[in-house]
Amino acid sequence: MATTTTERLDPIRKPKLSLSQIINMSVGFFGIQFGWDLQRANMGPIYDVLGASPDDIPLLFLAAPLTGLIVQPIIGYLSDRTWHPKWGRRRPYFFIGAVFSSIALIIMPNSSALWMAAGLLWVLDVFGNVAMEPFRAFVADKLPNSQLNRGFVMQSLMIGLGGCIASSLPWLLRNWFGMQNTAAKGIIADNVRFSFYIGAFFFLAAVLYTVFTTKEYPPADLPHKEKVQESNKGFGGGVREIFSAIGNMPPKMRMISLVQFFTWPGLFLMWFYYSVAVAYNVFGATSDTDTAFGNGKDFAGLTLAFYNVVTFAFAFVLPSIADKLGRRITHSICLLAGAAGLISVAFVTDKNMLFVCMTGVGIAWASILSMPYAMLGGVLPAGKIGIYMGIFNFFIVLPEIMASLGFKWVMNNLLNNDRLLAVQCGGFLMILAALICFLFIKDDKKGNEYDDLATELKITEERSV
Question: Most buried residue among 37, 184, 332, 381 by CB atoms closer than 10 A?
Answer without folding.
Answer: 37
